[in-house]
Amino acid sequence: MHRNPSQVDKASDREKRSPRRAANLIYGVADPVPVSSLIPLVVQQVIMLSVDLIFPVLIVAAASGTVEMAQTAVSMMMISMGIGTILQAWRNGPVGSGYFCAHETGTPYFPASIMAVQAGGFPLMCGMTLFAGVFQSLIGRIIHRLRILFPVEIIGLIVMLMAITFITYALPNFIGLDAQGSVSLPVSLLSVTALGVIIGMHIWGSQRIRECSIVVGIVVGYLGSYMFGLLPADKVDKFIDAPWIALPSFGHMGLAFDPALVVPFIIAAFASSIKTLGNLTTCQKVNDDEWKRLDMKSVGNGLFAEGIGTILGGLLGTMGQTTSSGSVGLSVATGATSRQIAVGTGLCFIVLAILPKIAALFAIMPQPVIGVILMVEIAFVLPTAMQICSSRMLNARRLFVLGISLTFGLGVAMVPGFGESFPLWLQPLTKNALALGTYIVQNSSTCICSRRIQKVAEKKCRCLQQCRKTNAS
Fold it and tell me: At what angle do helices 339-352 and 35-49 cross, to 10 degrees?
């Protein structure tokens, strides 16, 4: 439908209005943060974001690499994550969403990276990662033209699927579930204790206590794990043996390209983009009490920044990156979404890249700490997703779209072997509840909710009714 200039101006004015600060935020996106509060807020973000640094190590292991190569891959990942996080918070120009939406190891890239490193070593993985980053940057430049594909209820479903994907990681770590299906009582008790400390400080504590609640819970988890022997001796030895200062090596780097791996890396870039779309939706909503619709320009700039981060990962010899749903959930839980925290977190990772001793402390993170952090994130992100979904009236078409898509997304997590039953090149899509659910929701939305299809169906119904009347007469 054509809109006259006055309508366009009104729509533009709505998008340019100043966001209304949410009442539950201590530090909004543009607020300065005092150093006494900035330090614990940055520390808990760094600890949480370090959980997925195991994936570069697994890639090195798949290539039969050395321990030194694994340390280098982690250090390079830290550098690219740090730069990407700072770029994401940048709000001027075409790069950066302007929100604190930290970057982390791009788990959607993991299956494709394994394929690449086994087929052609690190040069091939780096070259294909660079290609995926360029592709994602291009998505960021055109996504503002695709607003019609992302109505509010679909955005809410994407955010909900992000929270659901965490459940499969959170609960096993929270209760200490092992490969035989046994539950660890010490892990469970310690997890409940650490979570109880966080909840108590967050609900009944003052502002300063609330800011430190996650850090205190993490410290309780680490100390309790050490006291009850939940930290394996080999992991403790790695922490003790790690040097305090060491520069990463650049010997394994190089660039190569294989057309056979284009599709897996494009799928990975698509899955990463959808995850970022959901994360930035949450960022926009929690920073604006009057949020109604997605700011696609901010999302496009955010995807462009993420693409640059992935390109940087390829150039530095590590895997791609994506934005962290956990970081967003943690910032919501602490009520701190300031860009200053993004800058502090990014700089901290860059410094940690040359401090292996500190990085090793994150690498030996015990199960109770991982489980508790993820549980806190789910507790804040999932209700936000429900609010987004229910903010718009759901008719029969939208109910079908959401119900079918949610079923497939849950199926990935609940049905054993569902994702692995598909070809390897398709598994970045089928093994990820967020990616598969979004793919289903977009296709079903196009088929069920398309006005053009609706008009064709109505026309055929009218023709059929006319034919029946003619035959009856």
Answer: 60
CA distance 280 to 297: 11
Closest CA to 41 of 211, 207, 199, 197: 211
Q: What are phi and psi of 322, to 5 degrees?
A: -145, 175
**CB-count burial class (<10 Å; 0-12, 13-18, 19+) for 51:** buried
Q: What distance in Å separates the CA atoms of residue 111 and residue 103, rounded to the nearest whole number?
A: 19
Q: Hey, which residues does 336 pair with through a beta bridge?
A: 27
Map tokens 């700089």 to a residue.
Answer: 347
Tokens of residue 336, six digits: 């701190």
pLDDT at 346: 92
Please check whether residue 92 is in contact with residue 107, taking contact to mean a CB–CB distance below 8 angstroms: no
Q: What is the pLDDT of residue 431?
A: 67
3 state DSSP class of 337: coil
Residue 252's nearest CA partner among 80, 112, 114, 71 is: 71
Structural contact between residues 399 and 201, judged by C-beta atoms closer than 8 angstroms: no
The overall pTM is greater than 0.85: no
What separation in angstroms does the CA of 203 have from each of 122, 213, 228? 48, 10, 28
- Copy the structure tokens of residue 316: 């530095």
- The residues with which 103 forms a beta bridge, in sequence order, are 323
Are the beta carbons of 339 and 101 closer than 8 angstroms?
no
Which distant-in-sequence residues (6+ apart) come within 8 Å of 183 by Cβ? 175, 176, 177
Q: Measure the CA–CA gap between 426 and 226, rounded to whole angstroms.
A: 41
**What is the rounded distance in angstroms from the CA atom of residue 87 to the CA atom of residue 465?**
59
Partners of 322 in the beta sheet?
A: 104
C-alpha distance from residue 5 to each of 2, 145, 292, 296 (Å): 10, 18, 22, 20
The position carrying tokens 């790690």 is: 242
pLDDT tens sequence across 361-401: 766 778 888 788 778 877 877 777 777 676 666 666 777 77
Strand partners, 323: 103
Helical packing angle, 339-352 and 67-89, nearest 10°: 160
pLDDT tens-digit readout, 164-215: 777 777 888 888 887 777 888 888 899 899 989 888 887 887 777 776 777 7
Exposed e or buried b per residue across 124-134, where buried means at least 16 C-beta atoms within 10 angstroms of its C-beta: bbbbbbbbbbe
Report the alpha-carbon distance of residue 341 to residue 27 in Å, rounded: 10
Bridge partners of 27, per DSSP, are: 336
